Amino acid sequence: MTAENEVTTSRQRQPDIPKLSGIVLDEEHLLTLTEISQACAVQTGYIIELVDEGLLIPESGPESRQEEPHFWRFTGEQMRRARVASRLQGDLGINLAGVALALQLLDEIEELRERLEALSIDDWDRPG
Amino acid sequence: MEYKDYYKIMGVARDASQDEIKRAYRKLARKYHPDVSKEPRAEARFKELGEAYEVLKDPEKRVAYDQLGANWKANQEFHPPPGWNAGFEFSERDFPGGDASQYSDFFESLFGHAFRSAQAGRAGARESGRGAAGFGSGQTFHAPGEDHYAKVMVDLEDSYMGATRTITLQVPEVDAHGHVSTRERTLNVVIPRGIRAKQYIRLAGQGAPAPGQGKRGDLYLEIEFRPHPYYRVEGADVYLDLPIAPWEAALGATVKVPTPGGAVELKVPPGSATGRKLRLKGRGIPAKTPGDFFVVLRTEPPPAADEADKAFYRTMAEQFKSFNPRAGLGVEA
């Protein structure tokens, strides 16, 4: 696990500090195998394992899994998945198949939570 | 500093076997793992748990910890006894890696810098290699500094207009003597227009400094929207529940609707029912292909506040005598 920082934000811009512009990891800005490995603090071999297990599907083209890892590209969302995978594996002592299952269940829970929120359940709690 | 009762944290007896300790740790770790848990204090609990396990899983550290005696109470004011540490030797393999900042002062005073200083020269290896080491393969990469992460809360409106936000990071630092402290770092960051929740902004070179010659790591900011009192966001689409009066629903109307990009006029078609979804194309989160803005209608009947109102509702009941809103439920009217 890399250092997780606590953050506070404020609207007031501090005038004496330079303004930083970063790159948004979107559909156009993808990460290479080296970059995603560095970002997750794992070795490239671990990312390759995740791809082999089907936990990560690289972006470059439909045949990408057959392509050389050198040509793979990953989204920010895949980076998040890879980080969660490596943390779950390291912290909970589960194997890759278990991590894959955990991730799948977490995705489902998230989706259900969102649907629950969208239903705004409290409307149904009215008495009478 | 406060005494930590590691046995209590793990929920095991002082004479628990190593196997019992491992089982207790696994069980609690699954429950409080920040990637899994929705418990409010999960992250703090998980760190505390990790620290307790760090000590109790290692027979050397456990024996040393037990030497403090069983009479200490959790959170009691604590000072390490004189000569602490003299008779123990902790193996380097168990050194708890680069996330030293997550350990308590209590842990630090017992197991921390005593032997961190012995290997302060190796700080670099700790900085860059630790993730890999977690998977047993050791020290192949000698690369740049560690990448850092932080979550940033922004308002949905920021994504419509773009914004600059000042963020303050707590950065852990280990000095030459092995002492850990946190330093505040303040950055002004441009939040670009069209940013979405869960997207990352990468700030090159704003992560940890590299050991030796390598370049600094990057800083990744993960975007999250503050919950909004009336908008809901799904990907690039934005939803609004819009209350309308029954006559607006029945007869149609043009109503003013707020959007994060400013108020717009919306035509409610006649005969609209609660739950009807109206789409304002392209008024979601801006992008080359912008998201859509969805208005979900909800009819809001006016309250029957006085006698005249009640009389009106009675007239309405008379007028709509054959209307049964529960017709589809299979019960008699």
In a few lines, what is going on in this structure?
The complex is a heterodimer of chains A (128) and B (333). With 128 residues, chain A is mainly α.
**Helical proportion of chain A?**
40-55%
CATH topology assignment of the domain at 33-121 in chain A: Multidrug-efflux Transporter Regulator, Chain: A, Domain 2
Silhouette of chain A: globular
- Given helix and strand content, the structural type of chain A is mainly alpha
Portion in beta strands of chain A: 5-15%
Taking Cα atoms only, what radius of gyration of chain A do you get, to the nearest Å? 19 Å
Q: What number of structural domains do the residues of chain B give?
A: 3
Compute the separation of the termini of chain A in Å. Answer: 51 Å
Low-confidence stretches of chain B: 91-100, 115-141
Class by SSE composition of chain B: alpha+beta
Q: What name goes with the CATH superfamily of the largest domain in chain B?
A: DnaJ domain
* CATH fold call of the largest domain in chain B: Helix Hairpins
SSE pattern of chain B, N- to C-terminal: HHHHHHEHEEEEEEHEEEEH
Instruction: Please give the number of β-strands of chain B.
Output: 11
The rounded distance between the terminal residues' Cα atoms of chain B is 71 Å
| Count of discrete alpha- or pi-helical segments spanning 4 or more residues of chain A | 4
How is this structure best described in words?
The complex is a heterodimer of chains A (128) and B (333). Chain A has helices at 33-40, 44-52, 76-92, 96-118; strands at residues 4-5, 7-10, 19-20, 23-24. Chain A is mostly helical and 128 residues long. Chain A has a domain at 33-121: Orthogonal Bundle (Multidrug-efflux Transporter Regulator, Chain: A, Domain 2). In chain A, helix 1 packs across helix 2. Chain A is globular, with a radius of gyration of 19 Å. Residues 121-128 of chain A have low confidence and may be disordered. Chain B has helices spanning 6-10, 18-32, 42-56, 59-67, 105-116, 123-133, 156-161, 246-251, 307-319, and strands at residues 148-154, 163-174, 180-191, 200-203, 219-225, 231-234, 237-244, 253-257, 264-268, 277-280, 293-299. In chain B, a hairpin with a 5-residue loop joins strand 2 and strand 3 (180-191). Strand 2 (7-10) of chain A pairs antiparallel with strand 2 (163-174) of chain B, so a sheet runs across the interface.
